[in-house]
Amino acid sequence: MHMADGGRIINIGSCLANRVAMPGIAVYAMTKSALNALTRGLARDLGPRGITVNLVHPGPTNSDMNPEDGEQAEAQRQMIAVGHYGQPEDIAAAVTFLASPAAGQISGTGLDVDGGLNA
């Protein structure tokens, strides 16, 4: 892999990688679940070079793809422990943390940013 030693790889997946919460999303969930294996494998392969590899699992997040006032929003909101959609800034904060020196010992794991949807 052509990457400088000591870098960070942060994959973006979905909270649906670990829970198929509704019918009709099996293929989507499968593709996101595959990122779990990729993240863990790369963490092992690249760890000796000081490269950390992690995965952020966003839950329902207000976006063009899934607006907090969209057709399925209320049904999704009812599954979220905190009762509201996340914002893009919530995902950015998780990525910023994982890219920081404070996360230098965190590698090969997923970070759920889903408001407790998978709790």
TrEMBL record:
UniProt-listed InterPro entries: NAD(P)-bd_dom_sf (IPR036291), SDR_fam (IPR002347)
Alphabetized GO MF terms: oxidoreductase activity, acting on the CH-OH group of donors, NAD or NADP as acceptor
Domain of life from the UniProt record: Bacteria
Pfam name, any one: adh_short_C2
Annotated CDD domains: SDR_c (cd05233)
Cited SUPFAM superfamilies: NAD(P)-binding Rossmann-fold domains
PANTHER family recorded: SHORT-CHAIN DEHYDROGENASE-RELATED, SHORT-CHAIN DEHYDROGENASES/REDUCTASES FAMILY MEMBER
UniProt family annotation: Belongs to the short-chain dehydrogenases/reductases (SDR) family.
Protein name (database record): 2,3-dihydro-2,3-dihydroxybenzoate dehydrogenase
Source lineage: Bacteria, Pseudomonadati, Pseudomonadota, Gammaproteobacteria, Enterobacterales
